[in-house]
Design goal:
- By secondary structure, the protein is α/β, with parallel strands linked by helices.
- It has three domains: about 10-245, P-loop containing nucleotide triphosphate hydrolases (Rossmann fold); about 260-340 and about 425-510, P-loop containing nucleotide triphosphate hydrolases (Rossmann fold), CATH 3.40.50; about 345-420, no CATH class.
- It is built from 18 helices and 22 strands.
- The chain has helices spanning about 45-55, 75-80, 100-105, 120-135, 150-160, 180-195, 205-210, 235-245, 300-310, 330-335, 345-350, 355-360, 375-390, 405-420, 435-450, 465-470, 495-500, 505-510; strands spanning about 10-15, 20-30, 35-40, 60-65, 70, 85, 165-170, 200, 215-220, 225-230, 265-275, 280-285, 290-295, 315-320, 325, 340, 370, 375, 425-430, 455-460, 475-480, 480-485.
- A six-stranded mixed beta sheet has the order 6-7-8-3-9-10, with helices on both faces. Strands 16-19-20-13-21-22 form a six-stranded mixed beta sheet, sandwiched between helices. It has a four-stranded antiparallel beta sheet with strand order 2-1-4-5, with helices on one face.
- Residues about 505-510 have low confidence and may be disordered.
- Bound molecules: adenosine-5'-triphosphate and magnesium ion (MG).
Amino acid sequence: MTVPTPILEMEGISKRFPGVVALDQVSLTVGTGEIVALIGENGAGKSTLMKILGGAISRDAGTVKIDGNPVEISSPREASALGIEFIHQELSVLDNLDAAANIFLRREPTKGGFLKLIDRKRIYREADELLRKIGLDLPSRTPLGQLSLAQQQLVEIARALGAGARIIIMDEPTSSLTLSETRRLVEIVKDLKARNVSVIYISHRMHEVEEIADRAVVLRDGKNAGEIKGTEITHERMVRMMVGRDLKEFFKGARGNGTNKDGEGFEVRRLRTLRYPQHLVSFNVGKGEVLGFAGLVGAGRSEVARAIFGVEEAIETEVALNGKALHIDDPQDAITHGIYLVPEDRRLSGLIVDFNVRENISLPNLDSYSSAKLINRAKEAKAALDACKAINIKTPTTEMRAANLSGGNQQKVVLAKWLTFSPRVLIFDEPTRGIDVGAKAEIYELIRKLAAEGVSVIVISSEMEEVLGISDRIAVMHEGRLTGILERPQFSEEAVMRLATGSHTEAQNAQK
Ligand SMILES: Nc1ncnc2c1ncn2[C@@H]1O[C@H](COP(=O)(O)OP(=O)(O)OP(=O)(O)O)[C@@H](O)[C@H]1O
Ligand SMILES: [Mg+2]
C-alpha cells in the first residue's frame, strides 16, 4: 500500500527577524482535503509560517514542496498559481468594488481563460454561482462596502474557491465574527473538505478547533511542539501542548462582589446614540461590578461605549458617578473623571504601530512621567516593563516597534496602557480578540482584580464563554435596543442568544 503524497510539505523552515527567532526548523505537512489547525500562543510563529507559504515573506531556510515537488514561492501571485490562497485576518477585499470584482481580483486573463473576452455577464453569473455555493445569498453586484465583516469574509472565500484553491489558509477567520456567523464558517470549512480542498486553520478558539480539525499542529516559541489527531484533539490537550504546562482553571467564574446600592458606582440614563436615535439606553454598573455587554455585531454596543467616553457625540444622555452627575463632551472629560475606554479596533484607536512598546504604554499617561517638561525615561521604561511583565507581553525589548509584534501581543500592549492608571470606570470593547487562551485567563484575572479594587467594569464581548464567565450581570443589546439584563442565576447561552436576536419580547416591553 502506498501512502498518498501530501499536497503540502514544509520542512525545516526558519525565519529570523531582528532580535527574534520567529521560526526555528518548523515542519508542517498537509494532506489533500485535510483540515489542519495551526495553534499556539501569541507570537508562536503561526502567521509567520503562513506568510512564508503565501509568498508574503521569504524564509531563511527550509524547503516547501507541493505534490512532492520543491517550489519557490516569492509572491502571493506565485502562491495562487500553485493553488494556495490566503484569507487574511485583516481583510484584503476592496470595499468600493462589488462582490464580483473582488472575486475575480488579481486573476489575470490567462491562456484560454474566459476573462480574455471580458464577458461581464459571464463574470457576474460565475460570481453569483460561487456566492451561492458558499451560501451567501446576495447578488454579486452588491458593493462590498454594504456587506458585514462576516459577509466580506465569505466573499474572500468565494474568491479563493473561484481561483481554484487547493489549499486555503485562514488566519483567525472567526476572531471578528459573532456566534452564528462562526457556525456558518465552520460549516463552510467542512464543505471545503468535502470538495477535497485542504484548509490550514489558525484560531485561538479551542472549541472550534476541536470541532473541525483533523489534526492540530502546535507551535511553541517558533518550534514544533507536537501534534494531536482526530478525537484526541481536546481543549485540555491542546492547551497543555501550547503552553507546555497545565493551565489553572480557565474561568473561576465571577464573584458577584459588586455593590448595587443606590448612588454607588456608574450610572447611564437615557442614552441616545447617533446610530440608533430611536432607542434610549439606561443601565448602571455597581462599584466593583463587572457588567457584560452581549449582542450580535452591530447591535450598538460599541456606539454606547464611544458615546459614554465622549469619542462620539450622544444626542442626549445623563451620566453619574457615585450619585454625582457628570458632563462628558470629549475623552479628556471622561479621563478626568476616571472613565476609560479600551477600544475594539486596536489599529484605529488603541495602538500607534509606528511607536515602540514603551511609548504606546506611556502615551496616555505622559503627565505622570514628566517632570519639568522632560519625560522621565527611566520611570517611563520601568512602568512599561512592569506592565509587559504583568500580562506577559512577548517582545525582546520595550523598544520594539508595535508593528512588529504578533497580533495578540499588540492587543496586550493596548491593555497594558490602562494598567498604569487608577480608573473608576473601565470599558473594555472586545478585550481578548485574537488573544491566546493563557493570556486570556490572565486578562480575566486582571479584570476581576480591577473590580475587586472597586472599579466599575463594562466588558463588551461577542464571545459567549467569555461574557458568561466574567460578568456579574449581562446586558444584552439588539439593534440599538437594550433587550434585557440578566442576573447571574439566569445566565445561559440560550438566554443571551434569545435577547441578542431580539426574540424576547417581554423584556423589550419591560424596557419601554
Ligand atoms: N515584521 C516583523 N518584524 C519583527 N518581528 C516580527 C515581524 N513579524 C513577526 N515578528 C515576530 O515574530 C514572532 C512570531 O510572530 P507571529 O505573528 O508569527 O505570531 P503568531 O503565532 O501569529 O501570534 P498571534 O497569535 O498573536 O497572531 C513574534 O515574536 C513577532 O513579534
Ligand atoms: Mg498571528
